[in-house]
Each structure stands twice: as structure tokens, then as C-alpha cells.
Fold this sequence. Notes:
The complex is a heterotrimer.
Chain A: H1 7-23, H2 28-51, E1 62-67, E2 78-82, H3 86-106, H4 112-131, H5 135-156, H6 161-190, H7 197-207, H8 211-228, H9 237-244, H10 247-257, H11 259-272, H12 274-302, H13 306-327, H14 330-361, H15 377-390, H16 398-412, H17 414-439, H18 445-453, H19 461-479, H20 482-495, H21 501-510
Antiparallel strand pairs in A: 1-2
Chain B: H1 3-24, H2 29-53, E1 67-72, E2 75-79, H3 85-108, H4 115-134, H5 138-156, H6 163-194, H7 199-208, H8 215-227, H9 236-239, H10 245-254, H11 256-266, H12 268-272, H13 276-297, H14 303-324, E3 327-330, E4 337-340, H15 342-371, H16 384-387, H17 389-403, H18 409-424, H19 426-451, H20 458-461, H21 468-483, H22 495-498, H23 506-530, H24 538-542, H25 544-605, H26 611-630
Antiparallel strand pairs in B: 1-2, 3-4
Helix pairs in contact in B: 1-2, 1-4, 2-3, 2-4, 3-4, 3-10, 3-15, 3-21, 4-5, 5-6, 6-8, 8-11, 10-15, 11-14, 11-15, 13-14, 13-19, 13-25, 14-15, 14-18, 14-19, 15-17, 15-18, 15-21, 17-19, 17-21, 18-19, 18-23, 19-23
Chain C: H1 5-25, H2 29-54, H3 58-88
Helix pairs in contact in C: 1-2, 2-3
Amino acid sequence: MNLPFDPLLVSIVAPLLAAGMLSLGLPAKLGKAVAAIGFLLPALLALHCWFYFPTDLGADYTYLTGYDTGLSYFGINLMLGLNGISMPLFLMAGIVGLASGLYAIQSKAERLPLYLGLLLVMQAGLMGVFASVDVFFFYFFHELALIPTFIMVGIWGGRDRGYAAMKMTIYLTIGAMLSLLGLIALYFKSGADNFTIIELHRVIAENGLRESIQSNIFALLLFGFGILVSLWPFHTWAPLGYSEAPSSAAMLHSGVLKKFGLYGLIQIALPLLPEGFSNWVCLFAGLAVFGNLIVIGLVTIAQSDLKKMVAYSSVMHMGYAFLGLACYSAVGIGGVIMMMVAHGLSVALLFLLSTSIHHRTKTFEMSDMGGLVKYTPVLAAFFVIATFASIGLPGLANFWGELAIFVAAWDFSPTLTVVSVSGVVISAIYGLRAAAKVFFGPESEAFAKVVAENKPADLCICEKIPALILIIALFAIGLWPKTISGPVTNAAEVLYATAPSAAVDTAQLSR
Amino acid sequence: MSVQFIALLTLLTPLASATLIALFLRKQGTLASLVSTLAAAVVAAGALTLAFGGGRFGEQLGAPVDMEWMRLGDFTISLGFLYNDLAALMLSIVGVVGLCVHIFSLGYMHDDSAKARYFGGLSIFMFSMIGIVLADNLFMIFIFWELVGFSSWLLINHYCLKQSAADASKKAFIVNRVGDFGFLLGIILCYYTFDTVNLVEIAHASGAGGVVAVAIPLLLFCGAVGKSAQLPLQVWLPDAMEGPTPVSALIHAATMVAAGIFMLCRIEPLFAHAPAIALNVVMWIGTGTALYAALCAITQSDIKKVLAYSTLSQLGYMVAAFGLGSIEHLDAESHTLIIISAGVGAAMFHLTTHAFFKALMFLGSGSVIHGCHHEQDIFKMGGLSKKMPLTFITFTIGVLAIIGMPGLAGFFSKDAILYLAMENNTPVFIILSITAVLTAFYMVRMWKLVFLGGTRSEDADHAHEGGASMTLPLLVLGVLSLIGGYEAIYGGHFNGVFDQVAHPHGSAHTTILITSLAVMLTGALGALFFYKSGPADSLQQRVPGAFGLLNGLKSTPDAVYGYYVAKIQQRFALVLNFLDQILIGGVIVRGVSGVVGLFGLAARALHTGNIHVYVYWFLAGAVILWALAAGTL
Amino acid sequence: MTVGLNEYLYLSAVLFAIGFFGVLLRKSTLIIYMCLELMLVASTVALVAFSRFNGTMDGNVFVFFILTVAAAEVAVGLAIIVALFRRRQTIQVEELNALKN
């Protein structure tokens, strides 16, 4: 079905327009309605794009449209389009954005219009990141989404918000700058006429790049994107930033924006720089498995603060993603995309629910909770669903990605696979421990005092709706993974048709 | 209706019931319980129709009944049914016991405040369990394997405001995950070795392609070790008794814990074509579990814990039977020696009878607990034979069946295992015989303390029989425990399994008969005369040393794991957390920022605020630039 | 005695030096300001002289620019100095060290 307008452009412009209208100082109710529309439109359009997504596309783009922004002299045009790899992420950005937007609308944040406005700008950036075919705008939209994050952490953050905002800013700016350097270097070394991914693919397929150049550019992209995705040991911004960030910002950043780095690696770095990839793969696979999965997994077990635990668990799960990248196969890459989507949904849900828990217990300290299920059965059920989703229970979305990554990883390195599968035990330990400490068992003394003052009520309808949006998405993908695995595998099979020669060697070595 | 359709209906009915309850019936407990029970009835009807209707499917190589569920690259996960005699038998057990437990729960959980959640959990469990039974490939088994783990977590956690229940459910899930760690690796290895995970294709490929790597069956066995609670992952099952008693009967006695053995029987060709060490490991782990759990059961005072350890011990029996492997057997008709996989036959046979009599005893104990107002200490019971005659009679049948009274279900299946052990491995035979003595001993001890003598507490004084919904399942299971050992009642519909059961002939027959009678009588009479109906344990009074030793045996693994979790894992995690915060977050990050800060400090010293100083700096800069431009510097 | 280019340039240099050292050494903002103006005038003198002796109008054009800028500077600079004095009651540079820290 054809819409009379470009759905991708509208899904970027609508939130920006809504943000602009909010800045005019609308009355509270009208402002909320405008914001809701600003969040709802991208989600609906993303669903539309997903529903009518062609099945025989390979790695090509659909909805492809170019807009001249006056930068065509530099080879830069606002070119929008979706392929099998970006569509699931675009959809996820829409859904998570809607959920976090609705959650923000009902929150009692101070200066709510400003908060919503920033969130809308962020949402526009997120939709733009995954809809951009032009590398410049891909980067530009990332920055557009990143800057509101800093501001939101700085203004609405928790106790350490100043330090957290500063640390996040420095880390993420360095990461973004490194990757920008890499992207520019790639553009110049390839000798492409314009900055679109399609053109880069075409030129590099024709001319190729020398291995040393590939290796250097890949390193820039790997570490640049790696910092953005919190690859160990460049992760320390994430737990601090997320635990201080206001819930909706944490949902959007950890759920969607963080996937920017992985997306860049999958869509740009790996297919264009296969030899560079094979020079670095052992390093980053090792860092991901031992650093992110095992070390951070154990660190997550040690957390006593609920939000910190969720933040660390999100860092840990990135280890699976990097392991999947290391496989350089349609199975592994497909698994990473499935995992990115599922992780985005589940971690956003966990952040949302942690905040709802905080409203009721007045603390994030898990030892000061307990027995909450007695007052809030629905919240408990939702949290249990989110927990089991994030520890990879079949029937919920996260299972597929993890399973595919494990299967693919065996081909890359059985040893690393064995180590990484132990992650399923680790995540079960911290996930269930958190659920048990917060909801089950007798009430702790501290919580009993809180209850005596103010009896906690169950989730209200306006908290339920955003949570349900995420839960339904988790179940939909969990029960019917073909919703997204079809386009993903079509694209991944084309992009990752041939394994890079050196990567095959390492696989044989480790056998 | 085609057989496939009935199978699909059987699988999906409980899922529909669970969904219905979760979405709409959370506040209508009674309605939820009826919906769930109705679903269980449909399952039972479907299972029996399928089993006795004769249709079997999915056994042919390359049967195109699979549905692709997910595909990434060349990796697909498909859904399909393999419904052979093995699956038919297991499905019938799940259906019948499941229905009994549902009906029993109607009475037992009548006053529970979270009835809807309970019955929703039961439905989810039925769905997942049937999924395991029908699955035709290892990934599908794994998926439902995880789901039974989840439903087990949900149901153990039913009394979730109790710390012990919360801990027990968590422990059960995590310990199972440890087993699944190996299971998943085994499946992946299998996938890479045979390029398929379909059970029929694996059976075909493993026979064709020489020796199977020993790692595959052993890694897959890890899954069974977790789910069937074998050494060293046995610790979760006794704790799982925190769940409601009918749950213990269904999940932690009759079906889910037996899924490990069922899964082993499904992948038997892998073991048959692997080096003998694979089966030997299985055999010794099973034998060890059987003996260990029987020893632990002797000192228990909680009626459910006795049954839990008894379950462990019997599961050990089944695993050992599977590990004993194949045997040469004289075919009665053709008078030729053929090799049968007697391990599968004996294990499944015992699984069947055990499901009946152990579910019976658990439900019986549930009836006792219900009657005694949730008193579980056997030393506070006594004399219940007069208060609860029907429970007494059916429970007695269960006890007689498990200790191997000739003519009852357990006798036949236990004999099959002992015979196999005698033929294949003498040390195992001896250990299993000792275990049989112990089984008779602790079972009769419990039976005597609960039902005979005088009442020993207020609660026991006022004990009463539950309603019809609680006695009816006891009767059904009691009858099955009586006749379940006669293959005739299965009408030849499960011959794929029962043909594999080895029957002793001639002198072997006599030896086995005498042995089993001797061990049963020794154990039973010993307990009958040794234990006095009193408020204290006779063993503890007379031989405190032995009692202490057995208690220590029971608590050591828990203590070791507890030590590991609290002292090693947690501390290691804390140390890593500390390093993460201090080393990476502190020394390195703050170090870098400190160096940058030093430069900043130095640069700031130049900012005196005096305009004249700035002018001098400006001059100096101009001079240097000029010198550079002129090339003198 | 004829007045050639050199004499004009000497005058310009002397004026510039007076202005330059005034800027460096004097403490009063007002005087520093006047010295700056002196330096501008010095360069103006040099430019006019160059223009006269080269016979082109380039230097004169520069002078117009300098005069314009100087006028603007007077307007802004004097205003700042007045505002400063109102707030701080002083125009001595060593007391105006708010740029520090």
C-alpha cells in the first residue's frame, strides 16, 4: 500500500514538529496530546513499513527517497530508506519511543513540556538514525538524539546527575568522534561520489581497499562504535549514566540509541571492511566474551541497586551482540539483529518498571524491598515477564537472538561459545534474585515503614499502557519470530554471503 | 479428525486455557480452576484417543510435517511432532496424571487466594510438558524444556510471600539452567556434527556415520541431570517441595522430573553409537543418585521431603537402568537371540509405574496434609488410618507398589531393572539391591509413623477426609498402581517400548524373584519393628551416630553449594565490582581525566587576570610567529 | 629641508612606540585606551604617507577603514570604561583581574 507521503520523512519530522509546538508553551492538556501524537505517529508509520515490507528485497533499500538539503556539493543528501537490517530496528525505535513517550507524559516530572520536547527531539533522531541511507545524516541524527540525553540526565537525573552527565558526554563524544573520523576516512579512501551507504558499497565492491587501510579504518569504527555500545572496558559510562538518567531517557538511550553503534558495525563496517574485520575480530570477541559477558555478568550479580543492576545487565547483553558480530555469518548477524530488537524492548521495559517500583518503595535498594507482590500483583507479573525475557525464556523475544548467536558462534570458536553460554546461568542468577528480592518473601523493615506511611497501589492504567506495548511486542516476536527474521535473513544473506578469508583461518585455528 | 490435528489440539488446549486465565480470569479463581481442569480433561482424552487409536506419525525419515518457525541464514528452527510409541506412552501418563492432579487441586486449593494463578500455572505446565513429549527435534525440546522450567518456577513460588518458597523456586530454576548450559551446548554440537537436530534424522545419521563423539550424548545428558535432579544437581528437588502438594505430585514426581529420562530415551541411538563410556557415566550417576537419595530419605521428618528423596532415588533407578544399555534377548517367537535396548524399556517401564504410584503417594500426602491442617511433620501425625481410611488404603497401595510387593506395579518394573543390572553389571546390581532395601525401609517407616499408632497432635486428632474431588484421583491412581505393571492393560499399543523390556527366564527368573522378595522383606520388616510410633525418631534415639551421619550426608551438598554461592561466587562478584568501580571507573578513567586536569591547571596558571601579562604573552607569541615566518627558528 | 617619506615614517614609528609602551606600562585603562588610539593614528600617518609617495589611493582607503573602526571603538570602549568605573569605582588594570579563575 502506498501512502501519499514519505512515511520515513514524516516519522522524523512529526516528533520535531511536536517538539516545536511544545516550545510555544501550549496549555498542559493540549501539550500532552500534541506530544502523544508526536510519539504515536512514528510508531504507526514504522508498523506500516514493517507490515508492507517486501519479502524479496535482499539487502536493497525500499522507501528510498532523497532530499536536497543544500549540502549536495559535499556529496551529502538527506536520503532515507529501509532495508532488511534497518527495518526491524526502525520498528523497534518506534515502539520503544511510543512506550517511553507515554510513560513520560504520565510522569510528574518538573517542567514537563521541556522534558517532553527533548524526548521528542530524541525520538526524531532515533527514527532518523535507522532511516538514513546517507552516512552523514546517519551520524547527524545520532547526535541529534544524543544531545537531549545529556541535557535530560543533567536536569532530571538522580543524585549524581552532574558527574553522570559529564561522564556520559565525554565518553559518548569521544566514541562518536572516533567513529566520525572512521566514516570520513572511509568516504575519502573509497573515492565515492556521495555519502550514501549504497554508493559506498558499490564503489568498494568495484575498487576494493588495501588491507592496511581497511584495518585502520575498522579500528576507528570498532572503538568508536564500541564505546557507544559499552564494549568492555569502555563501559563505565553506561551503568552510571543509566542509573542517574530519568526513566524515559534511559529507556530510549539503552533501548534504542545504544544500538546505533552495533547497527553501524553491521550495516557499514563489517561488510565494507572484511579484512579489517578479520584483523580485529579476535580482540573484540575476546573482550566481549570475557569482559562483557563474564566480568560484567558477575558484576551485575554483585549489584544491590535495582536500576544499576538493569544498567549492568544491559552492558552484559552487549557481549552477546559482539560475539554474534564476530561470527560474520547470516546466522550470527541475524541473531544480533533479533537480539538488538528484543533487548531494546526488554531493557526499556525493565527501566520503566524499575521506576514504577521506585515510586512505590521510595528506594532502588533491593534489600529495602520485599513482598511487593502483595500490593502490586500486576506490576509483579510485568516485572517477572521482563526478567524472564531478559534471561532468554522461549516465547519471549530475546530467546531467538541468543540462540542464533550461540549456534553461529560455535562455527567461530567453540571455546568462546562454551564460555558465553555460561552467561545464561549468570543472567538467571541476577534476574531471578532481583525479582525475588523486590517482590517475593516477607517485607523488609524499611519497606514496612514505607507501606505504613503510604500503601503502594498497583500500576495505574497510564503506566500499564506503555508497559503493555512493550510486553505485547516481546510476546509477538517471541511467539512468531518470522515477524522480523524474514527480512533480516534476506538482507544478512546478501551482505554476509562470503566470509572474509582471514576469518575462516581463525575459525580453523581455534578448532 | 486426523491424528496430527488431535495432537495439535492436545498441545494447544492448555495454552489456550492458560492465556484465557492470564488475560481474563485473574480474579475469578473458581472459573479459572474449572477452565484449567476442562483443558486437562481434553488433554487426557486426546492423549488416550491418540495412544489407543493406533495412529503414530513422524517416524519416517524426511516426513514433511515440520513447520518452519524461524530461519536465519541456513539455521532453521522448526516445529514438528514425532509421535511414536514412546511419545504415546509418555503423553498418556502426562494426560492421566495431569487430569488426576487437576481434579485433586480443585479440592486441595479450594480456599487459596491465588487460585487463578495456580491453575494458570498448571495449564502452562501441561502445555510445555506436552511440547517436550511431542517434539521431533532437539531445539523444540529445548524450548519446551525451558518453559517447564518456568512453570516449575511459577508453581514452586506459589506461596511467594514465604522466603523459603521464593528461595526454592529461584534455586530450582538456576540449578536447571546449569544443566541446560550443557544441554544447549550438546544440541549445538549435535547440530554441527549431523547438520540436523531432528530426532529421526539423528538416529539415522548416528547409525550411519561411525562412532559418535562421546561429548554429544554426555552434554545432552547434562540437561537430564538438571531436570531429573541427578547428582550433582540434585539439590533443587527437595527444596521444590515448598510448592503446593499437587504440584509436587505432577511436576516434581510424575512428569517433569521424568522428562529427563524421556529425553534420554528419545536420543538413545546417540548413546548406542557412542563409546561405552557415555552409558557408563550415565549408569554410575544414576546408581549413585539412587543410593544417595535413599540414604537421605531415612532421616527426613517432613512427609513431603521423604517422598521427594524417594523420587530422587527412583529417578536414579531409571537413569541407571538407561545407562545399563542393551542386552541380548531370546525372542519368544523366532527363538533367536536379538539385541534389545533394554535400558530404554526398563527405564520407561519404571517411569510409567513410578508416575502412578508416586503421584498417588504425593496426592495421598496432600490429602493427609489437608486433613491435618497443613501439618507436614510425620512425628506429629499418627493413627490416621482410622481418621482417613480411603487415603490410608490408597496410600498403602502406593507404598506396596514402590517397595516392590509382588503383583503390584512397582514389582514388575523394578524387577526389569534389577535383572538388567544383574546381567550387565554386578556392582550396580548390588547397589541397586541395597537401595531397594533402603526404599522399603524408609517407606514403611513413614507409612507406620503417619497411619499407625495413636494420634500425636491436635491437628491429627481432627483429621478428616477431603471431598470427592480429592478422593477420586486417589482411587484412580490407586487402581493404576495396582495393575500398572501388567503389560496386558496397555493392549499392545506401546509395544515399541514394552518389547524392549527384558524379562528374566529360567534360573535368572528365580534369582531375581528371590532377591527382590528378600530385599523388600528385609527393608519393610526392619522398619516395621525398628520404628516405634512416638514423637521422636527411633534411629535418632538408639543410634544417634548413624542418624547424624545420614543427616550430614543430606546437608553436605547444600552446604557446599551454599558456601560456593555465598562465599566464593558472591565475593568474587563483589571483588570484580570493586575492581570495575575502582580500577576501570576510578584509576584509569579518573587517572586520564586527572592528567588532562593537570594540563588544565598548568594552563590556568597563565591566566593571571592582569591585562599587561596578557599583552606580554601576546608579544611573545607575535615574536615567535615572526621568527617562524622568517625562518630563523 | 625637504620632508621625504622617511621623515613621515620616523614620526609614525615614534608615535607607535609611544603608544605601544604606553599600553604596556601604564596602569590606567583610560590612558591605555588613549595609547591604543595613538598606535592607530601612527599607522594612519604611515599609510597616508605611503599613499602620497606611491601616488595610489590604496593607503587612503585603509585610513578610512581605520577611522571608522576607531570611531566605533571609541563608542564601545569608552562606554565600557564608564560602566566599569560605575561598578568597580576604579579603572586601574591591576585591580581589574576578574578574568582570573
